[in-house]
Amino acid sequence: MKLRFYLASTQVLMLFFLLAPLFTSAQGYRPDKVSKKALQLYEKAYEKASAGNNREAIDLLQQSTDADENYADAWVALAKLQAESKNYSYSLICFRRALAIDADYFKPYLLSYAIALAGTGDFAKALEITNRYIDQYKPTGTALDAAQQRKKNFEFALQQEKAAAAPNDKTIFAPKNLGPTVNSKMAEYLPSQTIDGKQLFFTRRVDTYNEDFFTSGTTRPGNWELASPVKGSLNTPQSEGAMMISQDGAWLVFTGCYRPDSYGGCDLYISYKTASGWSAAINLGGKVNSDQWESQPCLSPDKQELYFASRRMGGYGGSDLYVCKLQENGTWGAPVNLGPSVNTPADEQCPFIHADNQTLYFTSSHWPGYGDDDIFFVRKQANGNWSQPTNLGYPINTIDREGTLFITADGKTALYAAERKDSYGLLDLYSFELKEKNRPYPTRWVQGKVTDKKTGKGIAATLELTDLSTRQIMSTVKTDSTGNYLLTLPTGRDYAFTVNQKGYLFNSDQYFLKNGISDSAAQKNIVLQPIEKNAAIVLKNIFFETNRFELDSASLTELDKLVTLLQENPTIKIEIGGHTDNIGKAADNLTLSDHRAKAVVDYLVGKKINASRLTAKGYGMDQPVADNATPEGRALNRRTEMKITGL
User: Fold this and answer.
1) What is the pLDDT of residues 91-128, one digit of tens each?
2) Does 53 lie in the same domain as 89?
């Protein structure tokens, strides 16, 4: 797409070179009176620009304006080439020199002048000049359409400026180059990181036609090691592109084009991390891929969903965004279109789902923006639908085409590719701080290993994260075959965390993140107990108000897990034990603990569990598991336990 854009803009520039001498002015500018030397240099510049040698063309045009400083056509051509190179500030200098020579002669170029103004962020002046172009030059046909579209873009930009002026967000857009250990004289783009920020992956164009995947590690933020090609058999003489690493660093999805196993054009592939490097690419199959273009894959943090862009039939038009869900048998289900709140008749591309598993960033050429593909985000609603897109605003979005964005787990830091003044060559990778209004939810993560209590060996298990207030399952994660897992926890909610595997008692925990997080990472190794007599667990998500025995509604998630356990194992008998801390009288605590245990049993009976399988017993303060001298210890002692009393 960038190539098509380049060709189109170059053709417009060539048209200018061909037609420039035809314009005349009543104010006295005479192209036919330009000095012979300046004209010769201008003609040589035209030849260089026609061949795609813009740098040489710029040099020749500068010589031409030196030879005749009143050569308006050379100034305009120089301005257009500088704008083509995104050097908008210098482009404006050249446009203004031409305007000063002859304002009437300059009228056909007012829209180009306005675009250069917008390139520097001066949208108010750009709108003023665009209106002047429409009123004074009176364009028709496609020229009028282009002017009216730019007018809409600049009006939108001014509305965004006004809306952004109210908040007190002082975040400054100041991209920082990731440095020479990551960037090179070649183009680097499409960055992604593991959730801990210790591994960076990206694409590098190693020659004119070939792209390969590179990686770099770090032991401290911002100090990247020398990047090297990823190990294994992933990189080939063919072109690999649009790569994204899974948050746990175990899977890598990417696009491969015109391969022998392709279903048509560009397909999606996956590679798995092994002891010797990355495995050979595996085509994701005929459900995911079609005979059309599929590209730009991104895995959800729990690796249960695969987002990507496709031009397959049946969409809303152009390129649409789709999602596939991982099935129980390990294959991917059929793609589902993200719907009209995201997709449009134009192009939506470059999906990135943040570690919060709720905020999706993407590019679109349809939704109101600044002039080309802009970056937007949507949030997943409680009903599973997506919110309306929000434009990230200037200067992340500009009048030029924007590309992919990767945002780290903290929600603050973004990575992207750009060609700036401090680039080492072509596109480089940069980091910058996102404005608060454009951030996803800050996300904590927990990682560890699930093992069998008796053998100590890692086991496969399923982990569920449930919103305690809504009982909505927010994430379901499966461990790998040896029990390793990574689970992300977006802030703003309180969660029940349960680990399940048939033949074992479930393990539960809780994470209270409604009011934010104090640290981002946690290590939690989980031990599951085989179902056998006297096996016991603490039911950590059973809640009561102080000195009360009525079950809190937040307890329902855990209680229903207990119901499922009893239904799946219809012969076991259990005891529910209530325990308190040592605050208050012993007799009162004993009564309270007994009532609380009975409240749990009553709930189970209400769910059709036979009462003969259930026993309630209060232990009061007699069996502490921690020191009652501290608030933390007393909290651990206030607990509800479940013990198997019979099989």
Assistant:
1) 999 999 999 999 999 999 999 999 999 999 999 999 99
2) yes
The beta-strand segments (E) located in 372-500 are: 374-379, 390-391, 406-407, 413-418, 428-433, 443-452, 462-467, 473-478, 484-490, 494-500
Beta pairing class for 359-364 and 374-379: antiparallel
Q: How far apart are CA 165 and CA 174, in angstroms?
A: 18
Higher pLDDT, 469 or 126: 126
On whether residue 639 sits in a domain, the answer given is yes
* Domain enclosing residue 616, as ranges: 531-647
Tell whether the model's pLDDT for residue 519 goes beyond 80. Answer: no
Q: What is the pLDDT of residue 491?
A: 87
Task: Identify whether residues 259 and 384 lie together within a single domain.
Answer: yes
Same domain, 236 and 361: yes
State the alpha helices, DSSP H only, in 469-611: 556-568, 586-606
Residue 171 is assigned to a structural domain of this protein: no
**Going by C-beta distance under 8 Å and a sequence separation of 6 or more, which residues neighbour residue 369?**
153, 156, 391, 397
pLDDT at 340 over 60: yes
The first and second tokens of residue 398, run together, are: 């500009």
- Residue whose token pair is 């799946």: 568
Q: Do 309 and 196 fall within a single domain?
A: yes
- Please state, rounded to an integer, the average pLDDT across all residues of the chain: 90
Q: What is the pLDDT of residues 258-298, one digit of tens each?
A: 888 999 889 999 999 998 899 999 999 999 999 999 999 99
Helix (H, G, I), strand (E, B) or coil at 186: coil
The CATH code of the domain that includes 324 is 2.120.10.30
**Are 261 and 380 within one domain?**
yes
Q: Does residue 405 lie within any of the structural domains?
A: yes
Angle at the Cα of 327 from the Cα atoms of 501 and 490, rounded to 5 degrees: 70
What is the rounded CA–CA span in Å between residue 306 and residue 352?
A: 10
Q: What residues contact 471, with CB distance under 8 A and at least 6 apart?
A: 556, 557
Say how far apart CA 646 and CA 572 lie, in whole Å: 6
- Asked if residue 550 and residue 520 are part of one domain, the reply reads no
Q: Do 56 and 104 have their domain in common? A: yes
Of the residues 418, 438, 458, the one at which a domain ends: 438
- Answer yes or no: is 243 within a domain: yes
* Total structural domains within the chain: 4
The maximal CA–CA distance of the chain, rounded, in angstroms, is: 110
Phi, psi (5° rounding) for residue 635? -65, -40
What CA–CA distances, in Å, run from 539 to 128, 265, 505, 642? 67, 53, 11, 7
